[in-house]
Amino acid sequence: MRIRLVVAEDSYLIREGLRLLLATQDYVDLVASVASLPELTAVVDEHLPDVVLTDVRMPPGDRDEGIRFAEGLTSSHPRIGVVVLSQHLEPDWALRLFAAGASGRAYLLKERVGDAAQLRNAIESVAAGGSFLDPHVVEALVRTRTRQAPSPLASLTPREREVLALIATGLSNTAIMNRLVLSERTVEKHITSLLAKFDLDPADPQVNRRVRAVLLYLSSQNP
Q1: Which domains does the chain have, with CATH numbers?
Q2: Is 0.70 topped by the overall pTM?
Q3: According to the per-residue pLDDT averaged within each range, which of 115-124, 142-151, 202-211 is highest?
């Protein structure tokens, strides 16, 4: 079944580029394309799409409209997924986007929308109720931010910190196992332990807990 999508982007060139790109994809139907938050609210209420692909900044305020819209959908239309596009790395926006839960939420840099496979991954993930955090975002944040005390990282062992840093770069359990030359059971044990130390709800799906752990890791850093 094709995913019904609404695009919200105030830049005509980017909006048209997305329209042309999505027109070539057989997994999605673009049902509307708008340039402002009021228009987005109206078309979502009218069409009830599966996913919204939205810029962070849009008229009328050009500040954080995309994030606020995603926050509002949590209560008004909880089944609609949201992929937020950002021109720049903004850790506070990423933290806000996932604050109410990682299910059905994705955060991508605009420079990545030309990567059809990456865009599809984000859209399909949120449509299925999952989450997606651009590996380029977390890689850059990990590179440019340093540890601050006190930190939720303080209770982690050196190996658990190493595993969490690799999770933050988007690596799977298998990739972490190969990188650190550990057994799969040992990697799973470290991940279970660090998630417990972050006091994350065991009832959350593991993918959501991993995203939350990464966000806690990034929020404990300072430029």
Answers
A1: 3-134 (3.40.50.2300), 145-222 (1.10.10.10)
A2: no
A3: 115-124
